[in-house]
Amino acid sequence: MAFELKIAAKSPLVDYASLIAATTANAKSATAVKIEFVDDKTVDGKASALLASGDKTFISTAEILNALADAFPAALPAKEESQEWITLSQDVLSLKDFKKLSEGLEKLETRLNFRSYLVGYSISMADVAVWGALRANPLMGSVIKNATFINVARWYTFVETFPSFGESVVSMTKSVAELRKQAKIAAPAKKEGHKA
Amino acid sequence: MSLSLSPLSLSELSNEELALSSQWSTLSARFPEGLDEFNTYLKSTTYVVGSKFTAADVTVFDNTWKHLQSVSDVASLRHVLRWADLVQNLTGQEKIKIDLDAAVPREIKV
Questions:
Q1: B70: DSSP letter
Q2: Is residue B107 situated within a structural domain?
Q3: Which residue, of A94, A126, A187, B48, has the fewest CB within 10 Å?
């Protein structure tokens, strides 16, 4: 079954986790998920991302990640062990309330005391969900830069080096810039008047 | 769970990466002297050479694991233990037992 993922580029919390999950699946088989960017706050008037497969649709990040994990278990392993991290990423790590966000970061910091990845010894669904949520959270830039949470900062910069993570975010930004350019060409904002 | 991932050989590294690799390979021969510095170094880097698993990790691990067999204060060497656990799992040669959920106080940035 073919998958199509739409991501709203202007969402206040861009669904990077779904983007990364789809990109990770595509790394194993190039045509697994067709990814499309929508230059708007939502993809359908409500959701920041939407995954469609046949007549099924998935809208929350957790639903999208789990649907992709079911379809591509080799690319997105450790579905069961990742659930608590998916929940934390959506319920806490996406918050723009620094006090609550910090409580979530404390949990991550503890988890990463003796671990290099959140689950096991390679990238799993948990890393995808948490990294995506933190990347989208505007409060996180300075937290990572200042390494207030030492383990979280190390893990974050490490995971970012995987092409499905750092590069896919950069490539999304480029694609969206290209979309805007084309939209401008198709419909010029204002007709230039002749100057006398 | 072991993946037996093969490390990057030194010929695949940049000059700067090679310098790090040779620095820690040399220093690790003198462990436990300098083990604390290695721990501090690993606060911000996953492997000996940044984010790449290289032959340097295997060399340094060979010099390190015997000093980690009975660590009484795991908090003070948490980064070395984290790295050692990763390396021994990637190479499939488990030498030391590490409690991944050991309770240690949160480390405050200095």
A1: T
A2: no
A3: A187
